[in-house]
Amino acid sequence: MFQAVRFGLAVVLGLHLSLSLFAQEPKKPLIPHAQDKPPNDPRDPETAAKMMTVPEGFTVEVVAAEPDIVNPVAMAIDERGRFWITESLEYPRREPGVGKDRVKICEDTDGDGKMDKFTVFLDGLNIPSGVAVGHGGVWIANSPDILFVPDADRDGQPDGPAQVVVTGFGRTDTHELPNSLTWGPDGWLYGLNGVFNYSHVKYPKENPNFKEDHKGWPLTCAMFRIHPRTREFQVFCEGTSNPWGIAFNDEGEAFISACVIDHLWHLVETGYYHRQGGPYPPFTWKIESIVKHKHQKAAYCGIHYFDSDAYPEQYRGKLYMGNIHGGCINVDRIERDGSTYKGFGEPDFLTANDAWFMPVVQKTGPDGCLYILDWYDRYHCYQDANRDPAGIDRLKGRLYRVRYKDSPRTPKGFDLAKETDEQLIERLGAKNDFIRWTATRLLQERGTANFTPQLFQNFLNTRLQPSVIHSRQAMFVIAAITPNLNDDMFSRFVSSLIFMSPSADELKLRQSWMIRILGDTPRQSQRMAKSLDSMPAKFDVKSASHQEKLQYAIQLNKLPTRSSGVLKGWLTLLSHSDGDKLLPQIIWQNLHPRLEEQADAFVAILSESDFLKSKPVAELMPRVADRILGRQKFDAEPVAQLFVLLRDDHPQVGRQVLDVISAKVQSGELKGEKLDQLKVAMAEPLTPLLAGQTTHPLASDAALLAASWGDPRGLPQVRRSFTTRGVQADLRLKSLSALISAKDDGVLSAVSDVLADKDQSAEFKSQVLLAIARLEDAKVADAILIQFAAMEPSLQPSAIELLTQRASWSMRLLAQVGEKKIAATAINLNQARRIQALKDKDLSELLNRHWGQVRDTRNPDRDKVVAEMKSLIRNEKTPGDPFAGEKVFKRVCAACHKIYGEGPDIGPDITLNGRNDFNQLLSNVFDPSLVIGAGYRVCTVVTTSGRVQSGLLVEDSLQRVVLKPVDVGAKSRTVAASDAPVAVAVGKQEVIPRDEIDEFKLNELSLMPEGLEKQLTPQEIIDLFAFITLDKHPKDPSAKRLPGVSAVSPRNSLNPTDFAVMVGEILPGFSTSESGELGVGLLIEHLGRDNVLRTHPVNRDKPCVLSMKITPPADKKIKLILDVAHDARGDWRLVVRGNGQRMADEMISKETCSKGWRTITIDLTKFAGQELKLDLVNQANDWSNEFGYWGGARIISE
User: E-assigned strands of 1040-1171?
Assistant: First the structure.
């Protein structure tokens, strides 16, 4: 019998299983992400345009292409119709400083629809990721800076050196740099930053707003804005992922497209949105996206609200988004949903039918057509660019126009800046969104210089029936120039707009903008603040629209006052939110910081009013209680008063408030003097609830709180609740937490009884084990280990999770491992790391002796494992069973990963993320620490009481650290083999008070343990990948496999730095430094065989040598099996050497091969047990087509 051996793993994988040899497998293989098949050859621009699919009546035209534009990233269109394009030749470079990138001006001087003049405006840039033109110059995002380059005369030449407006943007992730500089309707310049691009933005000394003591703005994913005149910087809102693209609709609302998470978001000022990863600020109430549908894949770049009469009506008033992996332009329709919107998918507008198509910007041009900027490269993803910089095509780039029939082109000499104020005001009603917005910007600029407001007012007062769009744009002009108007002029402007409102809905929209304008204007804000107490009465909240209420809620926080009228205003709005989803979240985001100093005033307002009769107000109270208890200057009295207001009239909300208080007591956030204050404050409110015969609905909840601090009035009832089997599990677990908090003497005995009870569910027991981790009692280990062998196999991993959290418990656990009572494999890698983090010398020695050494850096040998697994999966003749693979997935992956809507939110949702490419997927599964998203790094905390905890960081504040603990690996490392579902206690957040933290560390290794290949059989691995390499569920008949699973990405290279990667695709572990004619090639097929490597002798006398080092197992018969072929026009000599000894010398030719291929077997038994340097030599014969073709190499042990 023969068995294939995976060297280095010492794992027997099965009868005649092919072994992928390994030595120096490169870290990152070369297959482009998210392509459904190996990319086609690049097409010339005209051919690429002709192959695109667009609706009937439309054509795609090439406006500009390489060599005139290359690697385009960002784009702006100025008032002359000139296209300003940034080019990046060095992406994805991380280092700041002078670069080779530039801003280029593209012009159509003869009006034929094609760019014919190209001018470099500025060079020496370093990945310029955003550009905007206006207000006297050019604005450029060039991380770490936002630059302003003056060009007042608009001649396309800088008037002076670039000025740094703000600085401090990061370069930790250069595909998430500050981007999408876009003029907003209010005249501010908006931009975006990504979730893993850590930034700390500050004013430079040259900025007029600079102050030495200004702390700046730490941020990651956010929308920011800059005022072009004052140079003021603001964070507009935060959240999402790596957004790229800003669109403002005709109501002036902002939309962005994002990657990985949902693709479409409506952003409003002060909102905090769902993050792809990383902790949220304390007390955040996150806002979700506006869509429930998905388009192809999950990488979006650019978004534009298109509204032009150059297209038929059905294509107007919609959002157009670039889908990079999908190779298309997606379209979404939006509809109002209260103060926010809902998005609905529409048919794709354009499909490129070209894997190189990468739409990065979409904008309406002066002629009303949609223009699309195309990066055009085989590599869509930064990971490809990072691992194979030489594979990036840096010399291509296209700009397309999508034209409907014979729609007019931009006239020669087009220049809106030459038009008079009257003409520009007329342009505000244009049926082309580019014309409207550009006219708006120009009037806003003139409003800050020599624009005559009187002229504008006269126009508004005398014009007959202006269109809705026309007067809206006038409103946006007013929004920007308001600071320059006196009060009388401002009032007359407002009256003009309101008078012209054609409908009640339009009037409410305009009034919402008037509220926004007032809040953004310091002088008007001061006037509002002076009369604030009467404003809620003046503001007719009952008849106000959702938009008006939303803007009022936002602007209230800008008023220069700490008056309680602001709090009353928010409560008034909240009580009339009428089911609006967004308004309560925005109110909370603005309200909760004020509770730091105004909690007493807030509770006083509630006590003197009927606000709590409103359901939205009442439902906010648990958050209010949590925020008040989290204040730096602790005072429990406001919470006690709040509870009294809720206790009898709103018991359900009162129960939630008690839960909040109990949780903070039990976690240790409230202890010492704080706890003493709380007990005094709550004594009177709790007394009637703790009376012996009370029937109050909150009696048991009051008992839980009282028991938490050891009050004898609550302890007996809580003890009974935990030990009584018929009580609901949730109440029993709450009771257990209270008893642990009180350090109740009998709690460990009661827990032992529960664990021994065969009638208790494994899930309940698992939660019990999780809870008792807070017990500081060495006896816990004995209580658990006594019952360990009798525990259900599905419960044992939770017991191990518990026992690895304190030194004394871990010592007892490892002793039993040493005695062979518990298998070492019961402890997973993350648990071993946790034990190591305790830094106990004796404990670490035990761990090393009985479990193995723990690394704190990535294992470089994982490269070899990835190579082996690739060979196993790709070369398996019998495809795996995806339905069997789904069962494997549920057993080993579903504890952390969601797929097709099922599973927890611990690791990334891999429905659309991480499965774009076979090689990426292999790396993620078998080398999980190679690339770790910042939001998925494990945080390890050692407390002052000696407990060690690990998990994902949810919150990191001055008061506390919150972790989401996970028992990763438990489902695949059960002590006794079982296919039963495993009860793993995960997901419940652990709150650790800051003053109890002795050590805090973000680990460099992934939460996902290595070694999956040791836990599964070869067939299970094949089945698992048959499931996860499908782009849809296997029940879907349209499901297809990812690219690269069965076919390599074809490529040729003459660059020696590429050779190791390419050779490793077919012969893992082998590498070469030299290859002759055509270099090294990867072929999809050669002479009937798939996935082939091609080499060539360096010259007539110097062969191409493929080498690797291995150590074959001792006491085995070892054979090397090679599959080789010749060129149809030639032949070559194969020489195989082992440690310099010639083991084979064969002619590979038509005469010696069958159908071009030959299998050669070589005996290597003499090298068993010793280090072997193996050379495969492609040697010339007669120097005519001496190409060597390699189909694979296998080592078989007998």
Answer: 1051-1053, 1080-1086, 1089-1095, 1104-1110, 1118-1125, 1132-1138, 1141-1148, 1157-1163
Helix (H) or strand (E) segment spanning residue 323:
strand 318-323
- 1186 contact partners, CB below 8 Å, separation of at least 6: 1076, 1096, 1097, 1127, 1130, 1131, 1132, 1178, 1179, 1180
Q: Is 672 exposed, middle or buried (0-12, 13-18, 19+ CB in 10 A)?
A: exposed
How confident is residue 720, by pLDDT bands cut at 50, 70 and 90? very high
Count the neighbouring beta carbons within 10 Å of the beta carbon of residue 438: 25
3-state secondary structure 431-447: CEHHHHHHHHHHHHHHH
Angle, CA of 541, 547 and 553, to the nearest 5°? 65
User: Would you say the C-alpha torsion 270, 276, 280, 283 has a positive or negative sign?
Assistant: positive
pLDDT, tens digit, 9 for 90 and up, residues 771-817? 999 999 999 999 999 999 999 988 999 999 999 999 999 999 999 99
What b/e readout covers 626-662, taking b as 16+ CB neighbours within 10 angstroms? bbbbbeeeebbbbbbbbbebbbeebeebbbbbbbbbb
- In terms of pTM, does the model score above 0.70? yes
Q: Tell me the torsion sign for CA atoms 689, 691, 692, 696.
A: negative
Distance CA 675, CA 634 (A): 10
pLDDT tens profile 967-1024 = 544 333 333 323 333 333 344 788 888 888 888 887 766 767 677 887 788 888 888 8
Residues 6+ apart with CB under 8 A from 887: none
- Determine which helix (DSSP H) or strand (DSSP E) holds 84, and give its type and residue range: strand 83-87
Burial 836-853 (b: 16+ CB within 10 A, else e): bbbebeebeebbeebbee
pLDDT in tens, 586-618: 999 999 999 999 999 999 999 999 999 999 999
**Which H or E run contains 6?**
strand 3-6
Distance from C-alpha of 342 to C-alpha of 266, rounded to nearest angstrom = 9
| CA-based nearest residue to 721, from 710, 732, 713, 737 | 732
pLDDT value of residue 464 = 46
The residues, ordered by sequence, that sit 6+ positions from 368 with a Cβ below 8 Å of its Cβ are 308, 309, 310, 311, 407, 431, 432, 434
Above 90 in pLDDT, residue 861?
no
φ/ψ bin of 28: left (φ > 0), alpha (ψ from -120 to 50), beta (otherwise): beta
Q: Which of 50-59, 527-536, 997-1006 has the highest mean pLDDT?
A: 50-59
Beta bridge partners of 1196: 4, 1119
Return the exposure string of 905-937: e unless at least 16 CB atoms fall within 10 Å of the residue's CB, then b. ebbbbbbbbbbbbbbbbbbbbbbbbbbbbbbbb
> What 3-state class would DSSP assign to 521?
coil
CB 666 within 8 A of CB 990: no
pLDDT in the model for residue 137 = 98
Most confident of 444-453, 951-960, 1019-1028, 1116-1125: 1116-1125
Q: Is the pLDDT of residue 65 over 70?
A: yes
**Inter-residue contact 964 to 904 (CB < 8 Å):** no
Cis previous bond, 26, omega within 30? no
Backbone angles phi, psi at 845, to 5 degrees: -65, -40
> Quick one: CA dihedral 821, 827, 831, 837, positive or negative?
positive
Mean pLDDT of the chain: 86
Short-list 979, 978, 984, CA closest to 965: 984
- How confident is the model over 879-895, as pLDDT tens digits? 788 899 889 888 888 77
SS3 630: coil
3-state secondary structure 93-114: CCCCCCCCEEEEEEECCCCCCC
Burial class (CB in 10 A: 0-12, 13-18, 19+), 211: exposed
**525 has a pLDDT exceeding 70:** no
CB 69 within 8 A of CB 369: no
